[in-house]
Q: What sequence folds into this?
C-alpha cells in the first residue's frame, strides 16, 4: 500500500507525518520540486520511527515520479500558499500550472490512483486536476470540508466546553468565504446544536468558521498546516482502509444539489474506489440559496481560469 504526497511544504510534510505515525500506508513517498527538501524531511520523519514506534517507510524524492509509481492515493499540496491580504483566488495563475503538470505526472506513473487535491483555490484546482487527469470523477476530489468542519466543530467545542469528538457537523459549498455551514445538520452527542447555543452565538461561530483560514494567515503570515495536513490524512485513511466514511468532500457534480459541471463540497461516502456515493440531503430554501451563491463564486474563478489558457 503506497501513498504519495506531492509538495513537501507545510501541509504536505504534516500530512505525510500523520500518515506515517498512524501507519496508514506501508510506504509513503514525499515529493517536491526543490532539491533535497523532500529527502531531508522524509529522512527526519523516518528517524522518529523508533521513538514513535511505527514502521511505515517514508521516502523522499526530488521530482522523480518513478518513485511514486503504483500509488493507491496521491495527495497534491504543491503550490504557493496565501500571505496576509491575499484571497485563495489570488493563487490561481501560479497554482493551476503547477497542479496541471503534477497531475499529469501522477497519472502517468499511478494510473489507478485516487487523487486528493489540497492546493488553493481548492475547488478550481480540483477542476484543473480533473481536466488534466482524464480519469473517472470518483477518483479526483478535494480536501476542504473535512478541515472547515473541523474548524467549526473545534469552535463549538470551545464554546460549549464539551469534547470535539461528540460534535457532528455538515458543511457544504466552496472552500472560501461563501462556504455553507449547516446548523440544522449539526449535533452535539445527538442533540441538535440549536438546543444548546443561542442563535446569535451560533452565527458568530459560523462567521468565524468561514474566515477560519484567514484568521490563521493573519496570525502566522502564511496559511495553516496542522489541521489541513491531518484532514487530508483522514481522507487517505478512509480510502486505503475502505472505511466508507461519510465526509464532506469537494466533488464533481452532475446535477446533484441543482449544480452541474462544477466542483463543490458535498457529503459523500469515501472508500477504496474514491467517492463511492454523493449523499443528497434536503436543503431548505435559505440553505439552497447559500449553496447557489457559493457555487456562483466558484464559477467566477473557473471563468478566470478558463480565460487564462493554462489548461
Ligand atoms: N484545501 C485546504 O483546505 C488548504 C489548507 C491549507 C493550505 N492549502 C493550500 O495548500 C497549498 C500548500 O500549502 P503549504 O502551506 O504547504 O505551502 P508550502 O509553500 O509550505 O509548500 C508548497 C510546496 O510545494 C512545492 N512545489 C511547488 N511547485 C511544485 C511542483 N511543480 N512540484 C512539486 N512540488 C512543488 C514547493 O517547493 C513547496 O515545498 C497552498 O496552495 C495552500 O493555499 C489548502
A:
Amino acid at each position: 500500500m503506497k501513498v504519495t504526497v506531492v509538495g513537501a511544504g507545510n501541509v504536505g510534510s504534516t500530512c505525510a507525518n500523520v500518515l506515517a505515525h498512524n501507519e496508514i500506508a506501508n510506504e509513503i513517498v514525499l515529493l517536491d520540486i526543490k532539491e533535497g527538501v523532500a529527502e531531508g524531511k522524509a529522512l527526519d520523519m523516518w528517524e522518529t520511527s523508533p521513538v514513535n514506534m511505527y514502521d511505515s517507510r517514508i521516502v523522499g524524492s526530488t521530482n522523480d515520479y518513478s518513485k511514486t509509481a503504483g500509488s493507491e492515493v496521491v495527495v497534491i499540496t504543491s503550490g504557493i500558499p496565501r500571505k496576509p491580504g491575499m484571497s485563495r483566488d489570488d493563487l490561481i495563475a501560479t497554482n493551476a500550472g503547477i497542479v496541471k503538470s503534477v497531475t499529469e505526472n501522477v497519472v502517468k506513473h499511478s494510473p489507478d490512483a485516487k487523487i486528493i487535491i489540497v492546493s488553493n483555490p481548492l475547488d478550481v484546482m480540483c477542476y484543473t486536476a480533473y481536466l488534466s487527469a482524464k480519469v473517472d470523477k470518483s477518483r479526483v476530489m478535494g480536501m476542504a470540508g473535512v478541515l472547515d468542519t473541523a474548524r467549526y466543530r473545534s469552535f463549538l467545542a470551545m464554546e460549549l466546553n464539551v469534547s470535539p469528538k461528540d460534535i457532528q457537523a455538515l458543511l457544504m459549498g466552496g472552500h472560501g468565504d461563501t462556504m455553507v455551514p449547516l446548523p440544522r445538520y449539526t449535533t452535539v452527542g445527538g442533540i441538535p446544536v440549536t438546543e444548546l447555543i443561542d442563535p446569535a452565538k451560533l452565527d458568530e461561530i459560523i462567521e468565524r468558521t468561514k474566515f477560519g483560514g484567514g484568521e490563521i494567515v493573519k496570525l502566522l503570515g502564511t496559511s495553516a498546516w496542522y489541521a489541513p495536513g491531518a484532514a487530508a490524512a483522514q481522507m487517505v485513511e478512509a480510502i486505503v482502509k475502505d472505511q466508507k466514511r461519510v465526509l464532506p468532500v469537494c466533488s464533481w457534480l452532475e446535477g446533484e444539489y441543482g449544480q452541474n459541471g462544477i466542483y463543490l463540497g458535498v457529503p459523500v461516502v469515501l472508500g477504496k474506489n474514491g467517492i463511492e456515493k454523493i449523499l443528497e440531503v434536503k436543503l431548505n430554501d435559505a440553505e439552497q440559496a447559500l449553496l447557489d451563491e457559493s457555487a456562483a463564486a466558484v464559477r467566477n474563478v473557473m471563468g478566470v481560469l478558463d480565460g487564462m489558457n493554462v489548461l
